[in-house]
Amino acid sequence: MINHRQHASYIAVLIFGLAMLSGPSAVHGAEVPQAAAEELTIEGDNAVYRQNENSIEYSGNVVAFMDGMRIAGDKVLVQMEANSIARITTTGEPASFWQGVTEDQATTRASANTIVYLPGAAALELEGAASLQQAGNTVNSTKIRYRLDLEQIVASGSANERVRMQLVVPASDDDEATP
Amino acid sequence: MQDPRHQGADSLNLRGWRGLLTGGLVLALIIVVASWLTPQQVSNTLGSAGNRESLCLLQPTSTADDVVWQVFQPSGELNYEIRASNLEQFSQQQYVSITKPAVLMYDEGRHPWRMFAQTGIISAANGADAGSETEASQEALLLSGDVVLVQAETNEGSTGPTLRMETSALNVYPHHKQAFTQAQAMVSHPRFVITSQGLDLNLQTGTLRFTGDQTTRVVSKLFLPTHSKDS
User: Looking at the complex, does the CB of residue A167 fall below 8 Å from at least one CB of chain B?
Assistant: First the structure.
């Protein structure tokens, strides 16, 4: 025969125990748990940290990478604001970018004279002979903004250069069925 | 019957061989003894006066415990400070050996840099007059053994050091507010960690230059903020 009081007590103890293991925030419920920060690795031949400018500049075959993303260029400038990394600017001839599981299986590739990575917005801003290829489609423009999380492209031209897109139109089944 | 001339010749040959053998043994003995002793020791064993002098060279001319050495700017502000649990001065060699040194100096914004190590050597300038500005400007402090350099904000509400460097050896020029190391160095910050083989520090401006070598590049990890949905 089930003792409901004991059963309820056991459940309460179990819930309380799980809450204690989860930490004070779970017990008090006052703080929203913070997501773990992502790590971006940057390698270069040299680097200069300027405390009064709150910036780090890398030079010499610079590569920045983290899971699923890689940026390469001649120089990389990391700018921090209030101890938070605000933007990472890569310059090169050109600077390059790919996104995917591996470089061979990259779903998105891009290149430009300047590639700016905005961690807070999960966005890339490509400027100067910007080109982006995704799923066989290519976009060339003066400026391209690309959302990494949404894989969304926004391209804008200039007075001297219009946006050029090369799209791959997949063959439809209707065309094949029609004699 | 043996020719007496041959007997004499045999005798002479036997004495010659004995002489050569004896000489060879003495020479071998000298070589063996000399190999055990350094030239300085050999010189000392040959002369007691030289021996006494060499012993004096190894002894500090003065020692002190729990030392605090402060250097001030012309304006009266503290330029830098060196504390040590023990100090030994070697006048003839023109250097000072310190144990458990703790160095304090300020940058242009009066943010303190603090340095700690197992041992240190303060070398005096060569050829400069004692107490002269030239001597002060050429003083070098070599820190070695678990060298740690930290800088903390002086603003209220600071939770701890904002910059921390670790290396095995560090050359510091207090008068010029410069330091450098050719050993592996790691710099930690709340938003990044950088490792390199070699590091130049401008302690006045807070500029750190990381260098690599043929086999090692500058590697850093940046801790990025989590992105928001809004663009």
Answer: no
